[in-house]
Specification:
CATH class of the largest domain: Mainly Alpha
CATH topology of the largest domain: Peroxidase, domain 1
Strand order of the largest sheet: 2-1-3-4
Number of strands: 4
Shape: elongated
CATH architecture of the largest domain: Orthogonal Bundle
């Protein structure tokens, strides 16, 4: 389902990005989409999204009331369109895809590192430097400790995965030996 949600959200995210980029309002859209994502993920609002007795207009009014002031006309129109097409639940994926596109245009790559052990600041700086050369962009790291990797680390950048963990190598060996 997550893949379906991402597939559905992608054209909306692309359109939102194009409008924001053309109007030079990338950060304002980021803030609005982030706020809207939190709102539709709230259990009370999520229950209302699935409520057949609420009209699209009532649902949109509810979301706007929770969001408060400050949503641009374009963002409001996006919310109305999503409600009309029964796609409000894809807002978190839409926001995530929008942010990925925004950071790519700004020349920054978000990379997630999973390591069996905690990484020192010097190790993180070294990784940043290596990854900057590999990806040709500024790097923003998110580091998380995962003892199940046994040793080594795993690097994720969008759809690129570099698995240098002991667990990954053992799994690869097991596949080669057909275990």
């Amino acid at each position: 389902m997550a893949g379906d949600s991402t597939t559905i959200a992608r054209p909306y995210a692309e359109a939102a990005f194009e409008v924001a980029h053309a109007n030079k309002t990338l950060d304002a859209w980021s803030d609005a989409l982030s706020r809207l994502s939190v709102i539709v993920a709230d259990p009370q609002v999520a229950a209302q999204i699935g409520n057949p007795s609420l009209s699209d207009r009532e649902l949109v009014d509810l979301i706007f009331a929770v969001a408060g002031e400050g949503l641009s006309v374009e963002v409001q129109n996006l919310v109305r369109l999503l409600a009309e097409n029964e796609r409000l639940t894809v807002l978190p994926d839409l926001a995530r895809l929008y942010e990925a596109r925004k950071t790519a245009v700004q020349g920054v790559r978000h990379i997630q590192i999973r390591s069996a052990y905690a990484l020192s600041a010097a190790e993180q700086d070294s990784l940043k430097s290596s990854l900057k050369g590999h990806f040709g962009a500024e790097i923003e790291l998110t580091v998380e400790k995962d003892p199940s990797l046994i040793g080594g680390l795993e690097v994720r950048a969008d759809d690129v995965v570099i698995d240098g963990s002991v667990r990954g190598r053992l799994q690869q060996l097991a596949n080669e030996l057909q275990f």
